[in-house]
Structures are given as structure tokens and as C-alpha cells.
Amino acid sequence: MDRPDGSTQVAGRARPTCLVVVVGTGTEVGKTWVSAHLVGEWRRRGATVAVRKPAQSFRSDEGATDAEVLGASSGEAADVVCPPHRWYPVPMAPPMAAAVLGLDPPTLAALVAELSWPAGVDVGLVETAGGLRSPLADDADAVSLVRALRPDRVLLVADAGLGTVNAVRLCAGALAAGPGADTGPPPVVVLNRFDPSDDLHRRNLEWLGDRDGLVVTPATPDGLAALARDLLGGPGARSAAP
Which of 76, 97, 135, 183 could form a disulfide with 92, with the two C-beta atoms 3.0–4.6 Å apart? Predict the structure, then answer.
């Protein structure tokens, strides 16, 4: 069902005061690390937080899954963060992993319908799988999920090093283009593994901010604390780069 602001709400289910979707320029850029730190910061500030990962695929011998890490940060059970039937122990995109396991691949409609939130949540965070255009469902990628959920903010996690300007531009363009494109503010870019002493990292941050007009935040303790604070300002709050 549609809310008055045009966003989507599953019938009979609450929507967080601020809904944030975390996407990445690729796999292994640190979406879960960034998400867990933001959740911890929100909770330290007294906010109620819930985290959801619609589907996850993983290598079974690599330790804690994303859902387990996220659940530890939010105080939720891992099977609440990600439904057990959406855990795919094969290191491929979720619909591919499902096919390998002989399971029906998830659809976008099913993933959206399975998202539920406790009443009165201040911040709800949805973390996607893989890169922005990686298959998330049989018929969708993370761009499709963003358009279905119409979150208050999208966080685009990228590596701070070589190649990030190209990757961020491609992802920001994908979010802004095409039918049903998100009409909200552009994504906040979070440069992970940011080293303030690295000249390339500093130049990438400045280039994306000055040339492309994007809001860019380094994934440093101060940067993530400022981002968490600004997002708590409410739906549509805009983060300022430190």
C-alpha cells in the first residue's frame, strides 16, 4: 500500500520513522561493517533500531554471517534480521545460490513482503547483498529494491581507494536513471577503509563532493558518528561531510 508521501508500506506493518537502505558499489566493500557501526552509534544515542537483510549468501566456513553480525549490533536474533529460508550457504548472488541449492529463487515481491518492523522503531536499516546491480532476486537487483521501498536515505558504501570515483558515479547514475527512479535526495557516499593520511583517499572524497556534488562521508569514527547523528534528524535528513 502507498503512504501519503508516496512510499511503499506492507499492509498491516509499521514503517520506521527513518528508513535507510545500505547498498554497495560491489561485494566486500564493507556494507556490513559500516551498517553495524551506524546501528551501534544510533543505539548509544538512545534510538530504537531494527536491521533487516532480505537475503544473504555466504561461504559456510567463513565465520559469522552478515545477519549474525547485524543482529549482534542491533540486539536482534539473526533469523529476525534475515529469514532462515533466505540464508543461502553458497558464495553467489542469492538467486544463483538458491538455484544451486535446488530452491526457488526469491522474487522482489517476496523479499518486500517479508520485511516487517516492530512498532515505534526510530531507524530501520535494510542492507542489500553484493553490489548495486548484482542480482538480489530472480527479477531484481538492489536498485529495484530501493525503488520498491522508497527509503528516506540511501547509503552507498564504496572503497576509498583506486577506482572509486568511477564506481560511485556508475552507481549514483543507476539510482537516478530509468523508469521509477528514486526521486529523493542522492545517496550519501560512505568511503570505507578511509585513511586520512592517504592522498588518493582524500582526493577521491574531495572529487566526488566538489565535482559531482555528492555528500561524501569517510568511514572514520568521527565520520560515522556525524552521519548517524544527521540521519536521526528524521526522514530526508541530509548528512554533511566532516
Answer: 97
Quote the CA–CA distance of 216 and 115 in Å, as a whole number: 28
* ∠ Cα 41 56 54 (to 5°): 70
| CA distances (Å), origin 54, targets 20, 80, 89, 109, 111 | 14, 10, 15, 11, 6
Q: How far is CA 87 from its chain centroid? A: 18
Distance of alpha carbon 18 from alpha carbon 194, whole angstroms? 26
Residues serving a catalytic function are 53
What is the residue whose three cell numbers read 508516496?
Answer: 6
> What residues contact residue 31 under an 8 Å CB cut-off, 6+ apart?
22, 23, 24, 66, 127, 128, 157
Q: What is the DSSP letter of 153?
A: E
Mean pLDDT of 17-46: 97
Judge whether residue 242 has pLDDT over 60: no
For the cut 80, the answer to whether the pLDDT of residue 185 exceeds it is no
Domains of the chain: 18-231 (3.40.50.300)
Task: Check: pTM over 0.85? Answer yes or no.
Answer: yes
